[in-house]
Design a protein that fits this description.
Blueprint lengths: L2 H13 L61 H4 L16 E9 L2 E9 L8 E7 L6 H8 L1 H8 L2 E5 L2 E3 L2 E5 L12 H13 L4 E11 L1 H12 L6 E5 L15 E7 L28 H11 L4 E8 L2 E7 L7 E6 L10 H5 L12 H10 L4
């Protein structure tokens, strides 16, 4: 099966959950429980994840989808450090299945999609925020990771936002501290997105999780630093970064996966990347296991040990961490810039070998279920 046909087939499965053509029902006065009838099916689109997956470090002014620039206010640290406020008694009906929409944060417009499982009955459910790689979008990430389909099967809410582009780079991306700009604030956007989600779906504020691929994985690292009182646990796939400014408010359970043959975000650093004809610079000198170990240091972990999962997969785990949080780093021997266990990833040979001994999505969900605020 070709990448094109396989991706489209998976897209059909995901989109079969349905959508709400009329948008969300924020502000509805109805107190009836959410409907369990399937929403109207969305039109399908070809979903082929981009292989250009990393931030460029531009400090240019970001553009909204309308092409206008807008300055984002300085983030309110006290606000983002608090758990999400939820009042399910005020919520009206919500369509189950796949739905899309937009939010405005700091004057910039962000698109998103979410998948409400057909089992949703108005009771509090867990939320998984799933962040795409640069040049991709939320819809592509949903298929690449498989979290949208898993949300239906396991009964949680999968939310895939789409980043914005910045001047000089038309690809949608996420802001990292190494390339921070006062013209955008993606941490504040996540807070606003969660507020929007909580105004429409009855979510459990103690079970909000974050994951992502490539630059989305690096952004997830940033959320561990900045939103530890909001997010219960996090998982990064093909990207970990620990900036010197990282000071988590609390110890958080964190998991990562990275291939040793990743040439986009090199496992061993070295300063070179296939994304550029020249050296990638200081950012690509980061050694992935060392970056993750910085979080173990932050969380007071005492020692680590290795477990052989398969001939090509080793899990490094830490013990003695503050509040007994769980930290683990999966080293994928020979793995590329890929998502372990993803059929879509395995069909895109240009990004390297996809390890199929483990399923990063299934392992991430099992990990999330062990942790809550």
């Amino acid at each position: 099966m070709t990448t094109r046909s396989l991706a489209l087939a998976v897209a059909l499965v995901v989109s079969a959950c349905g959508s709400n053509p009329g948008g969300d029902n924020a502000g509805s006065e109805s107190t009836a429980p959410p409907t369990t009838a399937p929403a109207e099916t969305t039109s399908t689109q070809e979903i082929v994840p981009s292989t250009q997956e990393i931030v460029t470090g531009s400090d240019d002014v970001p553009e909204s989808s309308s092409g206008t620039s807008s300055t984002v206010p300085v983030v309110d640290v006290e606000r983002v450090s608090e758990p999400v406020s939820v009042d399910c008694s005020t919520l009206g009906r919500v369509q189950v299945g796949l739905q899309t929409g937009t939010i405005t944060s700091g004057g910039l417009e962000y698109e998103y999609q979410w998948t409400v499982p057909s089992t949703y009955d108005g009771s509090p459910i867990a939320v998984v925020l799933d962040f795409h790689a640069i040049g991709s979008d939320g819809a592509q990430q949903a298929v690449f990771s498989g979290f949208a389909a898993l949300a239906e099967a396991e009964g949680f809410l999968a939310v895939e936002p789409t980043g914005i582009s910045i001047d000089g780079d038309e690809r949608a991306s996420w802001e990292l501290p190494q390339f921070a700009s006062d013209q955008r604030d993606d941490i504040a956007m996540v807070v606003d997105l969660l507020d929007h989600v909580a105004a429409n779906v009855c979510i459990d504020p103690s079970r909000i999780y974050a994951t992502g691929m490539s630059s989305g994985a690096l952004f997830t690292s940033t959320l561990v630093c900045e939103l530890s009182n909001t997010i219960a646990a996090a998982v990064s796939v093909a990207g970990v970064t620990h900036h010197e400014s990282c000071v988590p408010a609390r110890a958080m359970s964190y998991l990562a996966f990275h291939g040793t043959d990743d040439t986009t975000i090199p496992f061993r650093g070295g300063g070179e990347t296939t994304l550029s004809d020249s050296e990638g610079g200081e950012f690509f000198e980061q050694v992935m296991p060392e970056e993750f170990a910085e979080f173990a240091s932050d969380f007071g972990c005492s020692e680590s040990s290795d477990s052989v999962i398969s001939d090509s997969v080793t899990l490094t785990s830490w013990v003695g961490c503050t509040d007994d949080v769980e930290l683990g780093f999966y080293t994928i021997d020979g793995g590329g810039h890929t998502w372990p266990g993803s059929i879509v990833s395995s069909e895109i040979t240009s990004i390297g070998v996809t390890n199929m001994d483990i399923d990063a999505t299934a392992l991430a969900w099992e990990f999330f279920q062990r942790h809550q605020l």
